[in-house]
TrEMBL record:
Molecular functions (GO terms): ATP binding; glutamate-tRNA ligase activity; tRNA binding
Superkingdom in the source lineage: Bacteria
Gene3D superfamilies: 1.10.10.350, HUPs
Residue span of motif 'KMSKS' region: 235-239
Record-given protein name: Glutamate--tRNA ligase
Example of a GO cellular component annotation carried by this entry: cytosol
Quaternary data: Monomer.
Species classification: Bacteria, Pseudomonadati, Campylobacterota, Epsilonproteobacteria, Campylobacterales
Positions annotated to bind ATP: 238
GO biological process: glutamyl-tRNA aminoacylation
Keywords: Aminoacyl-tRNA synthetase, ATP-binding, Cytoplasm, Ligase, Nucleotide-binding, Protein biosynthesis
Reaction(s) catalysed (UniProt annotation): tRNA(Glu) + L-glutamate + ATP = L-glutamyl-tRNA(Glu) + AMP + diphosphate
Length: 431
Protein backbone atom coordinates (compact mmCIF):
# COMPACT_ATOMS: atom_id res chain seq x y z
CA UNK A 1 0.00 0.00 0.00
CA UNK A 2 1.36 3.39 -1.04
CA UNK A 3 0.31 6.88 -0.05
CA UNK A 4 0.77 10.53 -0.89
CA UNK A 5 0.29 12.81 2.12
CA UNK A 6 0.49 16.53 1.26
CA UNK A 7 -0.37 19.45 3.53
CA UNK A 8 -2.83 22.15 2.35
CA UNK A 9 -0.45 24.93 3.34
CA UNK A 10 0.56 26.31 -0.07
CA UNK A 11 1.06 25.49 -3.74
CA UNK A 12 2.06 21.92 -4.47
CA UNK A 13 5.86 21.80 -4.87
CA UNK A 14 7.37 19.84 -7.76
CA UNK A 15 9.23 17.74 -5.20
CA UNK A 16 5.89 16.70 -3.70
CA UNK A 17 4.47 15.92 -7.13
CA UNK A 18 7.53 13.82 -7.91
CA UNK A 19 6.87 11.78 -4.75
CA UNK A 20 3.19 11.45 -5.69
CA UNK A 21 4.11 10.16 -9.15
CA UNK A 22 6.61 7.62 -7.81
CA UNK A 23 4.16 6.33 -5.18
CA UNK A 24 1.39 6.07 -7.77
CA UNK A 25 3.62 4.25 -10.25
CA UNK A 26 4.75 1.73 -7.63
CA UNK A 27 1.16 1.12 -6.54
CA UNK A 28 0.21 0.43 -10.16
CA UNK A 29 3.19 -1.85 -10.70
CA UNK A 30 2.33 -3.89 -7.62
CA UNK A 31 -1.42 -3.79 -8.26
CA UNK A 32 -2.04 -2.42 -4.78
CA UNK A 33 -4.10 0.49 -3.48
CA UNK A 34 -3.01 4.11 -3.47
CA UNK A 35 -3.97 6.47 -0.65
CA UNK A 36 -4.37 10.24 -0.73
CA UNK A 37 -4.18 11.68 2.78
CA UNK A 38 -4.48 15.41 3.49
CA UNK A 39 -2.29 16.25 6.48
CA UNK A 40 -4.17 19.25 7.83
CA UNK A 41 -3.33 19.19 11.54
CA UNK A 42 -1.31 22.43 11.35
CA UNK A 43 -4.37 24.69 11.52
CA UNK A 44 -2.38 27.91 11.66
CA UNK A 45 -0.77 27.25 8.27
CA UNK A 46 -3.68 25.63 6.41
CA UNK A 47 -4.96 27.64 3.43
CA UNK A 48 -8.61 27.47 2.40
CA UNK A 49 -9.11 25.86 -1.01
CA UNK A 50 -5.73 24.10 -1.14
CA UNK A 51 -7.21 20.69 -0.30
CA UNK A 52 -9.42 20.78 -3.40
CA UNK A 53 -6.56 22.23 -5.45
CA UNK A 54 -4.39 19.24 -4.53
CA UNK A 55 -7.07 16.83 -5.73
CA UNK A 56 -7.62 18.79 -8.95
CA UNK A 57 -3.89 18.80 -9.74
CA UNK A 58 -3.49 15.07 -9.10
CA UNK A 59 -6.44 14.31 -11.39
CA UNK A 60 -4.86 16.54 -14.05
CA UNK A 61 -1.81 14.27 -13.89
CA UNK A 62 -3.90 11.11 -14.13
CA UNK A 63 -3.20 10.16 -10.51
CA UNK A 64 -6.22 8.48 -8.95
CA UNK A 65 -6.66 7.04 -5.47
CA UNK A 66 -8.68 4.25 -3.90
CA UNK A 67 -8.74 5.71 -0.38
CA UNK A 68 -9.04 9.31 0.77
CA UNK A 69 -8.32 10.47 4.32
CA UNK A 70 -8.17 13.80 6.12
CA UNK A 71 -5.72 13.61 9.00
CA UNK A 72 -7.65 15.85 11.39
CA UNK A 73 -10.52 13.36 11.27
CA UNK A 74 -8.24 10.81 12.96
CA UNK A 75 -7.64 13.00 16.02
CA UNK A 76 -9.46 10.63 18.39
CA UNK A 77 -7.18 7.78 17.30
CA UNK A 78 -4.08 9.91 17.80
CA UNK A 79 -5.18 10.71 21.36
CA UNK A 80 -6.05 7.09 22.11
CA UNK A 81 -2.63 5.93 20.94
CA UNK A 82 -0.86 8.60 22.99
CA UNK A 83 -2.77 7.56 26.14
CA UNK A 84 -1.89 3.94 25.43
CA UNK A 85 1.81 4.82 25.37
CA UNK A 86 1.52 6.83 28.59
CA UNK A 87 -0.34 3.97 30.27
CA UNK A 88 2.41 1.55 29.26
CA UNK A 89 5.10 3.93 30.60
CA UNK A 90 6.55 4.32 27.11
CA UNK A 91 5.61 8.00 27.07
CA UNK A 92 5.29 10.63 29.77
CA UNK A 93 3.80 14.03 30.54
CA UNK A 94 6.32 16.84 30.22
CA UNK A 95 5.63 20.12 32.05
CA UNK A 96 8.78 21.94 30.92
CA UNK A 97 7.91 25.39 29.63
CA UNK A 98 9.15 26.86 26.35
CA UNK A 99 11.29 29.32 28.31
CA UNK A 100 12.88 26.55 30.37
CA UNK A 101 13.67 24.51 27.27
CA UNK A 102 15.02 27.59 25.48
CA UNK A 103 17.49 28.20 28.32
CA UNK A 104 18.68 24.59 28.19
CA UNK A 105 19.12 24.83 24.43
CA UNK A 106 21.17 28.01 24.80
CA UNK A 107 23.34 26.33 27.43
CA UNK A 108 24.00 23.38 25.13
CA UNK A 109 24.81 25.77 22.29
CA UNK A 110 27.31 27.67 24.47
CA UNK A 111 29.10 24.36 25.08
CA UNK A 112 29.02 23.48 21.37
CA UNK A 113 26.80 20.52 22.17
CA UNK A 114 23.68 19.29 20.41
CA UNK A 115 20.66 19.79 22.65
CA UNK A 116 19.06 16.66 24.04
CA UNK A 117 16.08 16.51 26.39
CA UNK A 118 17.49 15.88 29.87
CA UNK A 119 14.65 13.69 31.15
CA UNK A 120 13.47 16.12 33.84
CA UNK A 121 9.80 15.11 33.65
CA UNK A 122 10.48 11.49 32.78
CA UNK A 123 11.37 10.96 36.45
CA UNK A 124 8.06 12.31 37.80
CA UNK A 125 5.84 9.89 39.70
CA UNK A 126 2.15 9.42 38.92
CA UNK A 127 1.33 11.48 42.03
CA UNK A 128 3.62 14.28 40.83
CA UNK A 129 1.85 14.31 37.49
CA UNK A 130 -1.63 14.31 39.04
CA UNK A 131 -0.75 17.15 41.39
CA UNK A 132 0.76 19.36 38.70
CA UNK A 133 -1.72 21.82 37.18
CA UNK A 134 0.62 23.25 34.55
CA UNK A 135 -0.01 22.63 30.82
CA UNK A 136 1.89 19.64 29.51
CA UNK A 137 2.95 17.87 26.35
CA UNK A 138 3.45 14.14 25.93
CA UNK A 139 6.91 12.86 25.05
CA UNK A 140 7.80 9.41 23.79
CA UNK A 141 10.81 7.94 25.58
CA UNK A 142 13.85 7.54 23.37
CA UNK A 143 14.61 4.01 22.12
CA UNK A 144 17.02 1.76 24.02
CA UNK A 145 19.03 0.71 20.98
CA UNK A 146 20.13 1.84 17.54
CA UNK A 147 17.38 2.04 14.92
CA UNK A 148 18.01 0.91 11.35
CA UNK A 149 15.96 0.88 8.18
CA UNK A 150 16.62 0.04 4.55
CA UNK A 151 16.14 2.72 1.93
CA UNK A 152 15.70 1.69 -1.72
CA UNK A 153 17.83 4.63 -2.84
CA UNK A 154 20.23 5.32 0.04
CA UNK A 155 20.75 1.79 1.37
CA UNK A 156 20.90 1.07 5.11
CA UNK A 157 20.50 4.09 7.40
CA UNK A 158 20.95 3.96 11.17
CA UNK A 159 20.29 6.34 14.08
CA UNK A 160 21.53 6.17 17.65
CA UNK A 161 19.02 6.58 20.54
CA UNK A 162 20.42 10.00 21.50
CA UNK A 163 19.84 11.23 17.94
CA UNK A 164 16.17 10.30 18.21
CA UNK A 165 15.82 11.63 21.77
CA UNK A 166 12.63 11.73 23.86
CA UNK A 167 10.48 13.76 21.50
CA UNK A 168 7.04 15.36 21.74
CA UNK A 169 4.15 13.38 20.26
CA UNK A 170 1.19 15.41 21.61
CA UNK A 171 1.12 19.17 22.08
CA UNK A 172 -0.35 20.99 25.06
CA UNK A 173 -3.51 21.71 23.03
CA UNK A 174 -4.01 17.93 22.68
CA UNK A 175 -3.18 17.86 18.97
CA UNK A 176 -0.59 15.43 17.60
CA UNK A 177 2.78 16.46 16.26
CA UNK A 178 3.55 15.75 12.62
CA UNK A 179 5.58 12.61 13.27
CA UNK A 180 3.04 11.08 15.63
CA UNK A 181 0.00 11.72 13.43
CA UNK A 182 1.89 10.51 10.36
CA UNK A 183 3.15 7.31 12.00
CA UNK A 184 -0.22 6.42 13.51
CA UNK A 185 -2.09 7.10 10.25
CA UNK A 186 0.35 5.02 8.19
CA UNK A 187 -0.16 2.20 10.68
CA UNK A 188 -3.97 2.45 10.71
CA UNK A 189 -4.19 2.76 6.92
CA UNK A 190 -1.95 -0.22 6.21
CA UNK A 191 0.78 1.68 4.35
CA UNK A 192 3.68 -0.65 3.52
CA UNK A 193 6.06 1.60 1.56
CA UNK A 194 6.76 5.31 1.87
CA UNK A 195 8.39 7.28 -0.95
CA UNK A 196 9.13 10.89 -0.04
CA UNK A 197 11.82 13.58 -0.09
CA UNK A 198 15.12 13.09 1.69
CA UNK A 199 14.29 15.98 4.03
CA UNK A 200 12.16 13.36 5.82
CA UNK A 201 15.07 10.99 6.54
CA UNK A 202 15.39 12.29 10.11
CA UNK A 203 11.65 11.77 10.65
CA UNK A 204 11.78 8.11 9.68
CA UNK A 205 13.44 6.69 12.84
CA UNK A 206 10.98 8.65 15.00
CA UNK A 207 8.03 7.26 13.07
CA UNK A 208 9.50 3.76 13.21
CA UNK A 209 9.99 4.15 16.97
CA UNK A 210 6.37 5.30 17.40
CA UNK A 211 4.97 2.28 15.57
CA UNK A 212 7.29 -0.15 17.36
CA UNK A 213 6.29 1.34 20.72
CA UNK A 214 2.65 0.81 19.80
CA UNK A 215 3.35 -2.86 19.11
CA UNK A 216 3.08 -2.61 15.34
CA UNK A 217 5.23 -5.34 13.85
CA UNK A 218 4.53 -5.10 10.11
CA UNK A 219 7.60 -4.02 8.17
CA UNK A 220 7.75 -0.71 6.33
CA UNK A 221 10.02 0.03 3.38
CA UNK A 222 11.27 3.45 2.34
CA UNK A 223 12.71 5.46 -0.51
CA UNK A 224 13.91 8.99 0.21
CA UNK A 225 14.24 10.99 -2.99
CA UNK A 226 17.20 13.37 -3.38
CA UNK A 227 16.37 17.05 -3.32
CA UNK A 228 15.80 19.09 -6.47
CA UNK A 229 18.26 21.94 -7.01
CA UNK A 230 17.49 25.09 -8.96
CA UNK A 231 19.54 26.08 -11.99
CA UNK A 232 22.09 27.77 -9.73
CA UNK A 233 22.71 24.50 -7.89
CA UNK A 234 20.89 25.57 -4.71
CA UNK A 235 17.95 23.71 -3.15
CA UNK A 236 14.84 24.87 -4.96
CA UNK A 237 12.83 27.19 -2.73
CA UNK A 238 9.04 27.22 -2.57
CA UNK A 239 9.29 30.92 -3.41
CA UNK A 240 10.67 30.15 -6.89
CA UNK A 241 7.97 30.17 -9.55
CA UNK A 242 9.08 26.93 -11.21
CA UNK A 243 8.75 25.07 -7.93
CA UNK A 244 4.95 25.44 -8.03
CA UNK A 245 3.02 22.84 -10.02
CA UNK A 246 0.08 25.23 -10.32
CA UNK A 247 2.36 27.92 -11.78
CA UNK A 248 3.66 25.47 -14.36
CA UNK A 249 0.18 24.41 -15.44
CA UNK A 250 -0.99 28.04 -15.56
CA UNK A 251 2.01 28.92 -17.74
CA UNK A 252 1.29 26.37 -20.42
CA UNK A 253 3.22 23.28 -19.39
CA UNK A 254 1.33 20.06 -20.00
CA UNK A 255 0.78 17.72 -17.06
CA UNK A 256 2.09 14.84 -19.18
CA UNK A 257 5.31 16.76 -19.91
CA UNK A 258 5.86 17.78 -16.29
CA UNK A 259 5.37 14.15 -15.22
CA UNK A 260 7.77 13.00 -17.95
CA UNK A 261 10.40 15.48 -16.77
CA UNK A 262 10.08 14.69 -13.05
CA UNK A 263 10.32 10.93 -13.68
CA UNK A 264 13.35 11.55 -15.90
CA UNK A 265 15.04 13.87 -13.39
CA UNK A 266 18.00 12.11 -11.76
CA UNK A 267 16.84 8.78 -13.15
CA UNK A 268 17.94 6.19 -15.72
CA UNK A 269 15.12 5.73 -18.21
CA UNK A 270 14.98 3.77 -21.49
CA UNK A 271 13.92 6.87 -23.45
CA UNK A 272 13.54 10.61 -22.94
CA UNK A 273 9.97 11.20 -24.11
CA UNK A 274 7.28 8.98 -22.61
CA UNK A 275 3.85 8.91 -20.99
CA UNK A 276 2.97 8.01 -17.42
CA UNK A 277 1.46 4.75 -18.68
CA UNK A 278 4.74 3.86 -20.38
CA UNK A 279 6.73 4.72 -17.25
CA UNK A 280 4.62 2.29 -15.22
CA UNK A 281 5.95 -0.50 -17.46
CA UNK A 282 9.66 0.04 -16.74
CA UNK A 283 10.10 2.39 -13.75
CA UNK A 284 12.66 1.16 -11.20
CA UNK A 285 13.23 3.00 -7.91
CA UNK A 286 16.71 1.53 -7.61
CA UNK A 287 17.77 3.44 -10.73
CA UNK A 288 17.04 6.81 -9.13
CA UNK A 289 20.30 8.62 -8.37
CA UNK A 290 21.37 9.27 -4.78
CA UNK A 291 22.67 12.69 -5.79
CA UNK A 292 20.56 15.87 -5.94
CA UNK A 293 19.07 16.57 -9.37
CA UNK A 294 19.39 20.01 -10.97
CA UNK A 295 16.25 21.51 -12.48
CA UNK A 296 16.74 22.46 -16.14
CA UNK A 297 14.05 24.75 -17.54
CA UNK A 298 15.29 24.42 -21.14
CA UNK A 299 15.06 20.65 -21.00
CA UNK A 300 11.57 20.84 -19.53
CA UNK A 301 10.52 23.18 -22.35
CA UNK A 302 11.93 20.78 -24.97
CA UNK A 303 10.00 17.92 -23.41
CA UNK A 304 6.88 20.07 -23.21
CA UNK A 305 7.17 20.91 -26.91
CA UNK A 306 7.33 17.21 -27.79
CA UNK A 307 4.25 16.47 -25.69
CA UNK A 308 2.35 19.35 -27.31
CA UNK A 309 3.19 17.87 -30.72
CA UNK A 310 1.71 14.56 -29.57
CA UNK A 311 -1.72 16.15 -28.95
CA UNK A 312 -4.46 15.65 -31.51
CA UNK A 313 -6.23 18.74 -32.86
CA UNK A 314 -9.32 18.39 -30.67
CA UNK A 315 -7.31 18.04 -27.46
CA UNK A 316 -5.05 20.95 -28.40
CA UNK A 317 -8.02 23.20 -29.16
CA UNK A 318 -9.69 22.23 -25.88
CA UNK A 319 -6.56 23.12 -23.92
CA UNK A 320 -6.16 26.40 -25.80
CA UNK A 321 -9.91 27.14 -25.70
CA UNK A 322 -9.95 27.81 -29.46
CA UNK A 323 -12.55 27.23 -32.16
CA UNK A 324 -12.19 23.99 -34.12
CA UNK A 325 -11.43 25.79 -37.38
CA UNK A 326 -8.21 27.16 -35.85
CA UNK A 327 -6.93 23.65 -35.08
CA UNK A 328 -4.49 23.35 -37.99
CA UNK A 329 -3.06 26.79 -37.30
CA UNK A 330 -2.52 25.92 -33.64
CA UNK A 331 -0.92 22.62 -34.61
CA UNK A 332 1.43 24.44 -36.98
CA UNK A 333 2.76 26.61 -34.16
CA UNK A 334 3.70 23.54 -32.12
CA UNK A 335 6.81 23.42 -34.34
CA UNK A 336 8.26 26.51 -32.69
CA UNK A 337 6.35 27.01 -29.42
CA UNK A 338 7.42 25.36 -26.17
CA UNK A 339 4.31 26.05 -24.08
CA UNK A 340 0.57 26.31 -24.62
CA UNK A 341 0.77 29.96 -23.62
CA UNK A 342 3.24 30.66 -26.45
CA UNK A 343 0.88 29.08 -28.98
CA UNK A 344 -2.06 31.00 -27.53
CA UNK A 345 -0.11 34.27 -27.79
CA UNK A 346 0.79 33.60 -31.43
CA UNK A 347 -2.84 32.86 -32.33
CA UNK A 348 -4.07 35.91 -30.42
CA UNK A 349 -1.52 38.12 -32.18
CA UNK A 350 -3.01 37.15 -35.54
CA UNK A 351 -6.53 38.27 -34.64
CA UNK A 352 -5.66 41.14 -32.27
CA UNK A 353 -5.62 44.87 -33.01
CA UNK A 354 -2.13 45.57 -34.33
CA UNK A 355 0.35 48.41 -33.99
CA UNK A 356 2.05 48.93 -37.36
CA UNK A 357 4.59 51.54 -36.21
CA UNK A 358 7.10 52.37 -39.00
CA UNK A 359 5.15 50.34 -41.56
CA UNK A 360 1.84 52.08 -40.96
CA UNK A 361 1.38 53.32 -44.54
CA UNK A 362 2.46 50.04 -46.12
CA UNK A 363 0.19 48.00 -43.85
CA UNK A 364 -2.82 50.18 -44.56
CA UNK A 365 -2.18 49.84 -48.31
CA UNK A 366 -1.88 46.05 -48.09
CA UNK A 367 -5.11 45.84 -46.06
CA UNK A 368 -6.94 48.03 -48.55
CA UNK A 369 -5.94 45.77 -51.45
CA UNK A 370 -6.79 42.60 -49.51
CA UNK A 371 -10.35 43.78 -48.86
CA UNK A 372 -11.39 43.21 -52.47
CA UNK A 373 -8.86 40.57 -53.49
CA UNK A 374 -9.97 37.07 -54.47
CA UNK A 375 -7.40 35.04 -52.58
CA UNK A 376 -5.57 32.46 -54.72
CA UNK A 377 -4.81 28.98 -53.40
CA UNK A 378 -1.03 29.26 -53.59
CA UNK A 379 1.15 31.71 -51.69
CA UNK A 380 3.42 32.51 -54.64
CA UNK A 381 0.44 33.65 -56.69
CA UNK A 382 -0.92 35.60 -53.71
CA UNK A 383 2.44 37.33 -53.23
CA UNK A 384 2.78 38.16 -56.92
CA UNK A 385 -0.68 39.72 -57.19
CA UNK A 386 -0.30 41.68 -53.96
CA UNK A 387 3.11 43.08 -54.94
CA UNK A 388 1.73 44.21 -58.29
CA UNK A 389 -1.33 45.89 -56.78
CA UNK A 390 0.55 47.63 -53.92
CA UNK A 391 3.74 48.35 -55.86
CA UNK A 392 5.68 47.35 -52.74
CA UNK A 393 8.72 45.12 -52.71
CA UNK A 394 11.55 43.83 -50.53
CA UNK A 395 11.50 44.74 -46.84
CA UNK A 396 8.74 47.26 -47.46
CA UNK A 397 6.48 44.45 -48.67
CA UNK A 398 7.36 41.31 -46.71
CA UNK A 399 7.60 42.78 -43.22
CA UNK A 400 4.35 44.78 -43.46
CA UNK A 401 2.58 41.75 -44.96
CA UNK A 402 3.72 39.54 -42.11
CA UNK A 403 2.70 42.23 -39.62
CA UNK A 404 -0.79 42.52 -41.10
CA UNK A 405 -1.38 38.76 -41.20
CA UNK A 406 0.41 37.54 -38.05
CA UNK A 407 0.90 40.58 -35.82
CA UNK A 408 4.69 40.13 -35.71
CA UNK A 409 7.58 41.03 -38.03
CA UNK A 410 9.42 37.72 -37.71
CA UNK A 411 8.29 34.11 -37.68
CA UNK A 412 7.71 31.06 -39.88
CA UNK A 413 7.91 31.28 -43.66
CA UNK A 414 4.81 33.01 -45.00
CA UNK A 415 4.59 30.31 -47.66
CA UNK A 416 4.01 27.80 -44.84
CA UNK A 417 1.47 29.82 -42.89
CA UNK A 418 -0.54 31.27 -45.81
CA UNK A 419 -2.69 28.22 -46.48
CA UNK A 420 -3.49 27.95 -42.76
CA UNK A 421 -4.66 31.55 -42.36
CA UNK A 422 -6.09 32.05 -45.87
CA UNK A 423 -9.66 31.44 -44.74
CA UNK A 424 -9.22 33.97 -41.91
CA UNK A 425 -7.57 36.80 -43.87
CA UNK A 426 -10.77 38.78 -44.47
CA UNK A 427 -11.52 38.57 -40.74
CA UNK A 428 -7.94 39.46 -39.79
CA UNK A 429 -7.85 42.70 -41.80
CA UNK A 430 -11.09 43.93 -40.19
CA UNK A 431 -9.37 44.41 -36.81
Amino acid sequence: MYRFAPSPTGDMHIGNLRAALFNYIKAKQENTDFILRIEDTDNARNIAGKEEEIKTILKEFGITWQHYYVQSENLKFHRQMALKLVGEKKAFACFCTEDELALKKELAKSKNQAYRYDGTCEKLTDIDVLNCEKPFVIRLKKPHSQMKFIDYIKGEISFNPEDIDSFVIMRADKTPTYNFACAVDDMLEGVTCIIRGEDHVSNTPKQEHIRTSLGYDKSMTYAHLPIILNEDGVKMSKREAHSSVKWMLDNGYLASAIANYLILLGNKTPKEIFTLEEAIEWFDLKKVSKSPARFDTKRLMQINREHIKMLDNDKLNTLLNLDKDVAELAKFYTQEASTLNEIREKIQAIFAVKNYNEFDNECKLIKEVLKDLDLPQEYDEFKKILMEKTNLKGKNFFMPLRLVLTGVTHGPEMSEIYTLIKSFIKEIIKE
